[in-house]
Write a structure and sequence with these properties.
Helix content: over 70%
Number of helices: 13
Shape: globular
Mean pLDDT: 85
Length: 349
């Protein structure tokens, strides 16, 4: 799944959306068919589904990799070429870690509580919370699709135009026109994305909840599902606006947002453990709401002070020091070179 997430980013960059859809369709078919076949062969139901799903992901991975290899030119393959960049962008590791922790932190709170069940020896599951969570996560698919197809595409074009105007030596009036176009596009697309997702979330709360009631979810689980639908709706906006901050190289702001998101969702979820079941999910919703408000303030601040960020906050000199990860890369390259030299010597013999 981690590899597929990275592949999807590259496929989106080259606008291969139809191929992504085809990959998801093929992976779903293989997952369902594989699980059914394994259960027919007498394998345990849970293991059958896990193995079938893994096969579906493998099919997606191979399809996406085939398309990427066909599009991007092949050169000498260096799996560790990313290491030197980590010295310059270490904070991105922390941002990614905090965002992932915040996304799943509320689940861990319930897994480590007395409400958790053991599906098997090492398989922890909180039925009353995890089932509503699963269905609630599906409701933000429209937002994620719109972010990639509409918001990020439109915004990135205006962002490129703005910086091209600066780099091409444009007049101050031209730069301000490009900036206003950029800001208006950003605000407009964020508003449209929020509106469309809010409509879909309302439909899910009203109609999908009733459908789930006929499929085994009790009243408490339906209440958690409805709360989490709004929580994931706001989470989608939190994720989108964090990416927007990174477009402007506001790594500090993105890190604060990620830390605030993780801290509030985990702490508030712990508090809900001591409240009735009807309050479960409010921790995730409230944590996202707090982070969303902070991000609105931060993005607005960035837009108002964009000229200062671009012209006055850039470093005057490049730091030429060799960091930890770059030294590690040099050692790996030296070992590879020594291995190739020894191999060439054996081939001559």
């Amino acid at each position: 799944m981690l590899v597929i997430w990275v592949q999807m980013a590259y496929l989106s960059a080259i606008h291969q959306y139809s191929y992504e859809l085809l990959g998801f369709f093929a992976g779903s078919i293989v997952s369902l068919a594989g699980s059914a076949v394994l259960m027919k062969l007498g394998l345990d139901g849970l293991l059958s589904v896990m193995y079938g799903t893994a096969c579906g992901f493998l099919v997606m991975l191979c399809m996406f990799m085939t398309e990427l290899i066909a599009f991007f030119p092949m050169d000498r393959f260096d799996i560790f070429c990313f290491l030197p960049a980590l010295d310059h962008y270490r904070i991105l590791i922390l941002i990614g870690f905090l965002m992932a922790t915040g996304l799943y932190g509320h689940n861990f709170v319930f897994w480590f509580s007395g409400f958790a069940d053991h599906v098997f020896e090492t398989g922890v599951f909180c039925t009353k919370y995890d089932v509503p969570t699963f269905f609630a996560t599906l409701t933000i698919i429209p937002l994620l699709v719109r972010f990639v197809v509409s918001l990020e595409t439109s915004f990135s074009l205006k962002n490129k135009t703005y910086f091209d105007t600066i780099l091409a030596g444009g007049r101050f009036d031209d730069i301000m026109v490009a900036k206003n176009d950029l800001v208006n596009t950003l605000y407009r697309e964020l508003a449209r994305t929020m509106e469309s997702q809010l409509v879909f979330t309302m439909l899910a709360v009203i109609f999908v909840g009733n459908i789930l009631a006929f499929n085994g979810l009790d009243e408490a689980m339906l209440g958690i599902f409805r709360i989490l639908c709004f929580g994931y709706c706001i989470y989608g906006m939190v994720k989108s606006m964090t990416v927007i901050l990174l477009y402007f190289d506001d790594r500090r702001g993105a890190c604060i947002a990620a830390g605030l998101f993780t801290g509030t969702t985990v702490i508030l979820s712990v508090i809900t453990l001591f409240l009735p079941v009807s309050f479960w999910g409010i921790g995730f919703l409230a944590g996202n709401a707090v982070t969303f408000i902070w991000l609105i303030i931060r993005v607005r601040y960035m837009m108002e002070h964009l000229e200062y960020k671009v012209f006055c906050q850039q470093p005057l000199f490049v730091n030429g020091t060799v960091g930890l990860f770059e030294r590690l890369k040099h050692r790996i390259d030296a070992k590879e070179e020594a291995y190739r030299y020894r191999r060439k010597g054996h081939e001559k013999r």
